[in-house]
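Work Package 4 report. The design task specified in the project plan requires that, given a folded chain encoded as C-alpha coordinates, an amino acid be chosen for each position. We show below one input record used in the internal validation round.
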Protein backbone atom coordinates (compact mmCIF):
# COMPACT_ATOMS: atom_id res chain seq x y z
CA UNK A 1 0.00 0.00 0.00
CA UNK A 2 1.49 3.34 -1.05
CA UNK A 3 0.74 6.13 1.41
CA UNK A 4 2.14 9.25 3.09
CA UNK A 5 3.62 9.80 6.53
CA UNK A 6 0.55 11.80 7.57
CA UNK A 7 -1.67 8.82 6.70
CA UNK A 8 0.30 5.96 8.31
CA UNK A 9 -2.01 5.92 11.33
CA UNK A 10 -4.55 4.16 9.09
CA UNK A 11 -2.21 1.24 8.48
CA UNK A 12 -0.91 0.12 11.90
CA UNK A 13 0.65 -3.38 11.64
CA UNK A 14 0.32 -3.22 7.85
CA UNK A 15 3.07 -2.95 5.27
CA UNK A 16 3.24 0.34 3.35
CA UNK A 17 5.50 2.09 0.86
CA UNK A 18 6.40 5.74 1.30
CA UNK A 19 8.30 8.08 -1.02
CA UNK A 20 10.53 10.19 1.19
CA UNK A 21 13.79 12.06 1.71
CA UNK A 22 16.39 11.19 4.32
CA UNK A 23 16.48 14.11 6.77
CA UNK A 24 19.06 12.52 9.07
CA UNK A 25 20.28 9.14 10.27
CA UNK A 26 22.25 7.35 12.95
CA UNK A 27 23.32 3.74 13.19
CA UNK A 28 24.95 1.22 15.45
CA UNK A 29 26.41 -2.11 14.41
CA UNK A 30 23.05 -3.80 14.15
CA UNK A 31 20.38 -1.07 13.77
CA UNK A 32 20.05 1.99 11.51
CA UNK A 33 17.62 4.75 12.41
CA UNK A 34 16.44 6.77 9.40
CA UNK A 35 14.73 10.13 9.95
CA UNK A 36 12.40 10.35 6.96
CA UNK A 37 10.26 13.17 5.64
CA UNK A 38 7.83 13.32 2.74
CA UNK A 39 6.36 16.83 2.98
CA UNK A 40 3.35 15.68 5.02
CA UNK A 41 5.44 14.92 8.09
CA UNK A 42 8.43 13.20 9.67
CA UNK A 43 8.76 9.57 10.78
CA UNK A 44 11.56 7.34 11.98
CA UNK A 45 12.37 4.25 9.97
CA UNK A 46 14.12 1.45 11.86
CA UNK A 47 16.31 -0.95 9.88
CA UNK A 48 17.37 -4.05 11.86
CA UNK A 49 20.33 -5.89 10.37
CA UNK A 50 18.99 -9.31 11.32
CA UNK A 51 15.61 -8.65 9.68
CA UNK A 52 16.63 -7.41 6.22
CA UNK A 53 18.89 -8.48 3.42
CA UNK A 54 22.52 -7.41 3.88
CA UNK A 55 22.41 -5.03 0.90
CA UNK A 56 19.38 -3.23 2.38
CA UNK A 57 21.17 -2.74 5.69
CA UNK A 58 24.35 -1.51 4.04
CA UNK A 59 22.31 0.89 1.89
CA UNK A 60 20.58 2.20 5.01
CA UNK A 61 23.96 2.90 6.61
CA UNK A 62 25.43 4.57 3.54
CA UNK A 63 22.69 6.79 2.08
CA UNK A 64 23.32 10.50 2.43
CA UNK A 65 21.25 13.38 3.79
CA UNK A 66 18.38 14.45 1.48
CA UNK A 67 18.70 11.40 -0.76
CA UNK A 68 15.25 10.55 -2.09
CA UNK A 69 14.06 6.99 -1.50
CA UNK A 70 11.18 4.59 -1.55
CA UNK A 71 10.86 2.91 1.84
CA UNK A 72 8.82 -0.22 2.49
CA UNK A 73 7.96 -1.27 6.00
CA UNK A 74 5.39 -2.10 8.65
CA UNK A 75 3.72 0.71 10.58
CA UNK A 76 4.19 0.42 14.35
CA UNK A 77 2.73 2.46 17.16
CA UNK A 78 5.47 4.11 19.19
CA UNK A 79 4.57 6.04 22.33
CA UNK A 80 8.12 7.44 22.58
CA UNK A 81 7.79 9.24 19.27
CA UNK A 82 6.21 12.73 19.21
CA UNK A 83 4.51 11.57 16.01
CA UNK A 84 3.23 8.38 17.66
CA UNK A 85 4.36 5.94 14.96
CA UNK A 86 7.49 4.53 13.39
CA UNK A 87 8.28 2.34 10.40
CA UNK A 88 9.88 -1.10 10.72
CA UNK A 89 11.77 -1.07 7.42
CA UNK A 90 11.90 -4.15 5.19
CA UNK A 91 12.85 -2.55 1.86
CA UNK A 92 14.75 0.50 0.67
CA UNK A 93 15.55 1.84 -2.81
CA UNK A 94 17.25 5.06 -3.86
CA UNK A 95 15.49 7.38 -6.29
CA UNK A 96 18.21 10.03 -6.42
CA UNK A 97 21.35 10.28 -4.32
CA UNK A 98 22.11 13.70 -2.82
CA UNK A 99 25.80 14.58 -2.58
CA UNK A 100 27.25 17.21 -0.22
CA UNK A 101 23.92 18.65 0.90
CA UNK A 102 24.87 22.13 2.18
CA UNK A 103 22.59 22.38 5.26
CA UNK A 104 23.93 19.83 7.72
CA UNK A 105 22.71 19.19 11.30
CA UNK A 106 25.38 21.60 12.62
CA UNK A 107 24.70 25.29 13.32
CA UNK A 108 24.59 27.66 10.35
CA UNK A 109 24.50 31.46 10.22
CA UNK A 110 21.32 33.30 9.30
CA UNK A 111 22.67 34.69 6.04
CA UNK A 112 23.81 31.25 4.95
CA UNK A 113 20.38 29.81 5.71
CA UNK A 114 18.67 32.67 3.88
CA UNK A 115 20.90 32.12 0.84
CA UNK A 116 19.73 28.50 0.93
CA UNK A 117 16.10 29.23 1.79
CA UNK A 118 14.97 26.88 -0.99
CA UNK A 119 16.62 24.04 0.97
CA UNK A 120 16.16 25.40 4.50
CA UNK A 121 12.40 24.99 4.04
CA UNK A 122 12.97 21.22 4.29
CA UNK A 123 14.03 21.39 7.94
CA UNK A 124 11.68 20.22 10.69
CA UNK A 125 11.42 23.70 12.21
CA UNK A 126 10.62 25.44 8.94
CA UNK A 127 8.19 22.68 8.03
CA UNK A 128 6.36 23.31 11.31
CA UNK A 129 6.13 27.06 10.72
CA UNK A 130 4.79 26.57 7.18
CA UNK A 131 2.16 24.11 8.45
CA UNK A 132 1.02 26.67 11.03
CA UNK A 133 0.88 29.33 8.31
CA UNK A 134 -1.26 26.99 6.23
CA UNK A 135 -3.60 26.38 9.17
CA UNK A 136 -4.06 30.13 9.73
CA UNK A 137 -4.99 30.49 6.04
CA UNK A 138 -7.37 27.52 6.16
CA UNK A 139 -9.02 28.78 9.36
CA UNK A 140 -9.34 32.28 7.85
CA UNK A 141 -11.43 30.97 4.98
CA UNK A 142 -13.51 28.86 7.37
CA UNK A 143 -14.20 31.79 9.69
CA UNK A 144 -15.22 34.31 7.04
CA UNK A 145 -17.23 31.78 5.04
CA UNK A 146 -19.12 30.82 8.20
CA UNK A 147 -19.77 34.49 8.97
CA UNK A 148 -21.27 35.14 5.54
CA UNK A 149 -18.38 37.03 3.94
CA UNK A 150 -17.66 36.89 0.21
CA UNK A 151 -14.06 36.51 -0.99
CA UNK A 152 -13.11 39.31 -3.40
CA UNK A 153 -9.74 39.77 -5.11
CA UNK A 154 -8.54 43.38 -5.40
CA UNK A 155 -5.96 44.33 -8.06
CA UNK A 156 -2.23 44.27 -7.32
CA UNK A 157 -1.47 47.00 -9.87
CA UNK A 158 -3.14 50.26 -8.88
CA UNK A 159 -3.19 53.86 -10.03
CA UNK A 160 -3.54 55.32 -6.53
CA UNK A 161 -2.44 54.59 -2.98
CA UNK A 162 -4.57 54.27 0.17
CA UNK A 163 -1.85 55.76 2.38
CA UNK A 164 0.18 57.97 0.02
CA UNK A 165 2.92 56.95 -2.40
CA UNK A 166 6.06 57.35 -0.28
CA UNK A 167 6.30 53.63 0.52
CA UNK A 168 5.12 52.23 -2.80
CA UNK A 169 6.92 50.48 -5.62
CA UNK A 170 6.28 52.50 -8.77
CA UNK A 171 6.15 50.99 -12.23
CA UNK A 172 4.95 51.97 -15.69
CA UNK A 173 1.58 50.70 -16.83
CA UNK A 174 2.07 51.29 -20.53
CA UNK A 175 2.02 55.11 -20.62
CA UNK A 176 0.61 55.60 -17.11
CA UNK A 177 2.16 55.52 -13.64
CA UNK A 178 1.16 52.53 -11.54
CA UNK A 179 2.05 51.09 -8.15
CA UNK A 180 2.26 47.69 -6.54
CA UNK A 181 -0.56 47.54 -4.01
CA UNK A 182 0.17 48.32 -0.37
CA UNK A 183 -3.39 47.40 0.55
CA UNK A 184 -6.55 46.21 -1.15
CA UNK A 185 -8.70 48.21 1.24
CA UNK A 186 -10.09 50.89 -1.08
CA UNK A 187 -11.27 48.25 -3.54
CA UNK A 188 -12.71 46.17 -0.73
CA UNK A 189 -14.81 49.16 0.30
CA UNK A 190 -16.28 49.21 -3.20
CA UNK A 191 -16.92 45.46 -2.95
CA UNK A 192 -18.63 45.87 0.44
CA UNK A 193 -21.06 48.34 -1.10
CA UNK A 194 -22.00 45.60 -3.58
CA UNK A 195 -21.80 42.44 -1.45
CA UNK A 196 -22.19 43.59 2.16
CA UNK A 197 -19.39 41.69 3.92
CA UNK A 198 -16.25 40.86 1.96
CA UNK A 199 -12.65 39.83 2.56
CA UNK A 200 -9.50 39.59 0.51
CA UNK A 201 -6.32 37.62 0.95
CA UNK A 202 -3.32 38.53 -1.09
CA UNK A 203 0.18 39.96 -1.33
CA UNK A 204 0.98 43.56 -0.48
CA UNK A 205 4.16 45.54 -0.98
CA UNK A 206 5.82 48.24 1.13
CA UNK A 207 8.94 50.04 -0.08
CA UNK A 208 9.86 50.74 3.52
CA UNK A 209 13.59 50.63 4.28
CA UNK A 210 13.22 48.77 7.53
CA UNK A 211 15.41 45.95 8.85
CA UNK A 212 13.44 45.05 11.98
CA UNK A 213 12.32 41.52 12.80
CA UNK A 214 8.71 42.60 12.20
CA UNK A 215 9.04 43.90 8.64
CA UNK A 216 9.00 42.40 5.16
CA UNK A 217 8.97 44.14 1.79
CA UNK A 218 6.38 41.69 0.42
CA UNK A 219 3.84 40.17 2.78
CA UNK A 220 0.29 38.82 2.79
CA UNK A 221 -2.77 40.45 4.30
CA UNK A 222 -6.30 39.40 5.13
CA UNK A 223 -8.54 42.45 4.64
CA UNK A 224 -12.25 42.26 5.54
CA UNK A 225 -14.60 45.16 4.88
CA UNK A 226 -18.17 45.40 6.16
CA UNK A 227 -21.10 47.62 5.20
CA UNK A 228 -23.29 48.90 8.06
CA UNK A 229 -20.57 48.00 10.62
CA UNK A 230 -19.52 50.79 12.94
CA UNK A 231 -16.36 51.03 15.04
CA UNK A 232 -17.40 48.75 17.92
CA UNK A 233 -18.86 46.16 15.54
CA UNK A 234 -15.50 46.06 13.78
CA UNK A 235 -13.59 45.32 17.00
CA UNK A 236 -15.86 42.39 17.80
CA UNK A 237 -15.22 40.80 14.41
CA UNK A 238 -11.46 41.22 14.91
CA UNK A 239 -11.31 39.61 18.33
CA UNK A 240 -13.58 36.75 17.30
CA UNK A 241 -11.48 36.12 14.20
CA UNK A 242 -8.18 36.11 16.07
CA UNK A 243 -9.61 33.87 18.79
CA UNK A 244 -10.82 31.47 16.10
CA UNK A 245 -7.49 31.14 14.31
CA UNK A 246 -5.61 30.69 17.59
CA UNK A 247 -7.94 27.86 18.60
CA UNK A 248 -7.65 26.28 15.14
CA UNK A 249 -3.86 26.24 15.41
CA UNK A 250 -4.08 24.71 18.88
CA UNK A 251 -6.53 22.06 17.66
CA UNK A 252 -4.76 21.14 14.42
CA UNK A 253 -1.06 21.95 14.82
CA UNK A 254 -0.19 20.38 18.17
CA UNK A 255 2.77 18.46 16.76
CA UNK A 256 4.14 21.53 14.97
CA UNK A 257 3.82 23.69 18.11
CA UNK A 258 5.66 20.97 20.04
CA UNK A 259 8.49 20.90 17.46
CA UNK A 260 8.86 24.66 17.93
CA UNK A 261 8.75 24.40 21.72
CA UNK A 262 5.80 26.81 21.88
CA UNK A 263 4.35 27.62 25.30
CA UNK A 264 0.78 26.40 24.76
CA UNK A 265 -0.61 28.00 27.92
CA UNK A 266 0.04 31.45 26.48
CA UNK A 267 -2.05 30.58 23.43
CA UNK A 268 -4.77 28.73 25.33
CA UNK A 269 -5.72 31.89 27.21
CA UNK A 270 -6.43 33.81 23.97
CA UNK A 271 -10.20 34.18 23.98
CA UNK A 272 -12.46 37.13 23.09
CA UNK A 273 -13.15 39.74 24.31
CA UNK A 274 -9.77 41.49 24.29
CA UNK A 275 -8.76 44.40 26.54
CA UNK A 276 -8.98 47.92 25.08
CA UNK A 277 -6.80 50.90 25.87
CA UNK A 278 -7.25 54.33 24.32
CA UNK A 279 -4.27 56.18 22.87
CA UNK A 280 -4.62 58.76 25.66
CA UNK A 281 -4.51 56.02 28.30
CA UNK A 282 -1.54 54.41 26.58
CA UNK A 283 0.42 57.68 26.73
CA UNK A 284 -0.23 57.94 30.48
CA UNK A 285 0.74 54.30 30.99
CA UNK A 286 3.99 54.71 29.03
CA UNK A 287 4.96 57.77 31.07
CA UNK A 288 4.37 55.75 34.24
CA UNK A 289 6.65 53.04 32.83
CA UNK A 290 9.46 55.51 32.27
CA UNK A 291 8.96 56.28 28.57
CA UNK A 292 9.16 60.02 29.15
CA UNK A 293 10.32 60.66 25.58
CA UNK A 294 6.91 59.77 24.07
CA UNK A 295 4.54 62.72 23.76
CA UNK A 296 0.90 63.00 22.74
CA UNK A 297 0.81 62.94 18.95
CA UNK A 298 3.82 60.64 18.59
CA UNK A 299 3.52 57.24 17.00
CA UNK A 300 4.47 54.17 19.03
CA UNK A 301 7.59 52.15 18.31
CA UNK A 302 8.31 48.53 19.13
CA UNK A 303 9.41 49.20 22.75
CA UNK A 304 6.20 51.13 23.45
CA UNK A 305 3.96 48.44 21.94
CA UNK A 306 5.83 45.73 23.87
CA UNK A 307 5.43 47.57 27.18
CA UNK A 308 1.68 47.90 26.61
CA UNK A 309 1.40 44.25 25.56
CA UNK A 310 3.29 43.04 28.63
CA UNK A 311 0.62 44.57 30.84
CA UNK A 312 -1.92 42.12 29.36
CA UNK A 313 -2.04 38.37 28.84
CA UNK A 314 -4.07 38.69 25.66
CA UNK A 315 -3.89 40.82 22.52
CA UNK A 316 -4.81 44.40 23.35
CA UNK A 317 -6.55 47.06 21.24
CA UNK A 318 -5.08 50.56 21.27
CA UNK A 319 -7.99 52.73 20.12
CA UNK A 320 -8.86 56.35 19.22
CA UNK A 321 -5.58 57.56 17.70
CA UNK A 322 -4.69 61.15 16.79
CA UNK A 323 -5.97 62.09 13.36
CA UNK A 324 -2.51 63.34 12.40
CA UNK A 325 -1.02 59.82 12.70
CA UNK A 326 -3.54 57.99 10.55
CA UNK A 327 -4.57 57.83 6.87
CA UNK A 328 -7.12 60.11 5.27
CA UNK A 329 -9.99 57.61 5.08
CA UNK A 330 -10.60 57.11 8.84
CA UNK A 331 -13.82 58.33 10.44
CA UNK A 332 -13.43 61.12 13.04
CA UNK A 333 -14.38 60.47 16.65
CA UNK A 334 -17.75 62.28 17.03
CA UNK A 335 -16.69 63.46 20.49
CA UNK A 336 -13.22 64.72 19.56
CA UNK A 337 -12.15 66.14 16.23
CA UNK A 338 -8.48 65.41 16.91
CA UNK A 339 -9.08 61.63 17.09
CA UNK A 340 -10.23 58.97 14.63
CA UNK A 341 -12.23 55.80 15.21
CA UNK A 342 -9.45 53.29 14.65
CA UNK A 343 -7.60 50.60 16.56
CA UNK A 344 -4.34 48.69 16.36
CA UNK A 345 -4.37 45.18 17.80
CA UNK A 346 -1.07 44.43 19.57
CA UNK A 347 -0.08 40.79 19.97
CA UNK A 348 1.38 39.56 23.28
CA UNK A 349 5.02 38.64 23.86
CA UNK A 350 6.54 41.52 21.89
CA UNK A 351 5.20 40.64 18.44
CA UNK A 352 3.73 44.06 17.84
CA UNK A 353 0.78 45.17 15.76
CA UNK A 354 -0.97 42.36 13.89
CA UNK A 355 -4.14 44.25 12.91
CA UNK A 356 -4.89 47.82 11.92
CA UNK A 357 -8.53 48.76 11.43
CA UNK A 358 -11.01 51.61 11.51
CA UNK A 359 -14.43 52.86 10.69
CA UNK A 360 -14.17 54.59 7.30
CA UNK A 361 -15.29 58.10 6.42
CA UNK A 362 -18.68 57.74 4.77
CA UNK A 363 -19.54 61.41 4.24
CA UNK A 364 -18.72 62.63 0.73
CA UNK A 365 -17.79 66.22 1.62
CA UNK A 366 -15.55 65.15 4.49
CA UNK A 367 -13.74 62.56 2.39
CA UNK A 368 -13.27 65.07 -0.43
CA UNK A 369 -11.78 67.51 2.09
CA UNK A 370 -9.45 64.81 3.43
CA UNK A 371 -8.23 63.95 -0.07
CA UNK A 372 -7.41 67.63 -0.63
CA UNK A 373 -5.70 68.01 2.76
CA UNK A 374 -3.45 65.03 2.04
CA UNK A 375 -2.62 66.47 -1.39
CA UNK A 376 -3.84 63.36 -3.18
CA UNK A 377 -4.69 63.47 -6.87
CA UNK A 378 -8.47 63.90 -6.97
CA UNK A 379 -8.78 62.27 -10.40
CA UNK A 380 -7.18 59.05 -9.12
CA UNK A 381 -9.66 58.92 -6.24
CA UNK A 382 -12.76 59.89 -8.24
CA UNK A 383 -14.15 56.33 -8.14
CA UNK A 384 -13.46 56.09 -4.39
CA UNK A 385 -15.30 59.34 -3.73
CA UNK A 386 -18.23 58.12 -5.83
CA UNK A 387 -18.79 55.34 -3.29
CA UNK A 388 -19.94 58.16 -0.96
CA UNK A 389 -22.19 59.73 -3.59
CA UNK A 390 -24.39 56.76 -4.37
CA UNK A 391 -25.93 55.28 -1.25
CA UNK A 392 -23.13 55.78 1.26
CA UNK A 393 -23.39 53.90 4.57
CA UNK A 394 -21.27 53.58 7.70
CA UNK A 395 -18.72 50.86 7.07
CA UNK A 396 -15.59 49.47 8.70
CA UNK A 397 -12.73 47.12 8.02
CA UNK A 398 -9.28 45.96 9.01
CA UNK A 399 -6.15 44.28 7.77
CA UNK A 400 -4.34 41.40 9.48
CA UNK A 401 -0.70 40.80 8.61
CA UNK A 402 -0.31 37.07 8.07
CA UNK A 403 3.44 36.80 8.70
CA UNK A 404 3.41 38.68 12.02
CA UNK A 405 0.47 36.60 13.17
CA UNK A 406 2.23 33.34 12.23
CA UNK A 407 5.40 34.53 14.00
CA UNK A 408 3.40 35.14 17.18
CA UNK A 409 1.54 31.83 17.04
CA UNK A 410 4.73 29.90 16.21
CA UNK A 411 6.86 31.72 18.74
CA UNK A 412 9.61 32.41 16.17
CA UNK A 413 11.57 35.61 16.52
CA UNK A 414 11.69 36.95 12.96
CA UNK A 415 8.99 37.20 10.26
CA UNK A 416 11.51 36.02 7.65
CA UNK A 417 10.79 32.47 8.86
CA UNK A 418 7.03 32.80 8.39
CA UNK A 419 6.91 33.28 4.61
CA UNK A 420 8.32 30.70 2.17
CA UNK A 421 10.62 33.10 0.31
CA UNK A 422 11.06 36.37 2.22
CA UNK A 423 11.72 39.64 0.47
CA UNK A 424 13.85 41.82 2.73
CA UNK A 425 15.58 45.17 2.29
CA UNK A 426 18.70 43.58 0.84
CA UNK A 427 17.34 40.23 -0.28
CA UNK A 428 15.70 39.29 -3.57
CA UNK A 429 17.33 35.82 -3.74
CA UNK A 430 16.32 33.04 -3.92
Amino acid sequence: MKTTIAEVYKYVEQEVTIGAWLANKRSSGKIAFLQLRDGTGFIQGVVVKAEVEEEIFQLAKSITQETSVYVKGTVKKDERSPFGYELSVSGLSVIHSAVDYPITPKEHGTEFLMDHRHLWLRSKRQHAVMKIRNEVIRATYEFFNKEGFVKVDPPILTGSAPEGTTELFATKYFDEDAYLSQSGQLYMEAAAMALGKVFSFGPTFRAEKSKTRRHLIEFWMIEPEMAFYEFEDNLVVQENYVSFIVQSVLDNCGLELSVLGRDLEKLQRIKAPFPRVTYDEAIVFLHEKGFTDIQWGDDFGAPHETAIAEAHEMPVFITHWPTSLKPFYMQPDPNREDLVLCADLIAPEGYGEIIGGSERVHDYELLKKRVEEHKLESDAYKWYLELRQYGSVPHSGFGLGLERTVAWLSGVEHVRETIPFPRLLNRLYP
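The chain has a mean pLDDT of 96. Validation will be extended to a larger panel in the next phase.
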